[in-house]
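Many introductory courses stop at the sequence. We go one step further.
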Amino acid sequence: MAIVKQFLIILTVSLIGEAAGYFIPLPIPGSIYGLILMFFALHFKIFKVSSVKETGKFLIDTMPLMFVPPGVGILGCLDVLKAHWWQIVLIAFSSTFVVMAVSGLVTQLIMKLKDRMC
């Protein structure tokens, strides 16, 4: 029964997030609003982590299964992937490099700001 209650809490917060995404005229998905709401609800102790921990762990443990349908869908488009494989590889490597560089620069900036404040 506890798992059903935990799932209903997560589902309710997700539903509120989806509603917010529908009514707020920004290009942000409702799932992101739901994550933000869940974060603030846990941070401000509207409900405790223990009230969603078991179900959250279960959902995270089963998350890899959610990648199977998109993977099968990609297999259906192998002809397109074969035709543009070098572009896909180039984009993957360059975007990975850009993310690493930006993350490193932001981390260095935050460390410098932290040193100045202390």
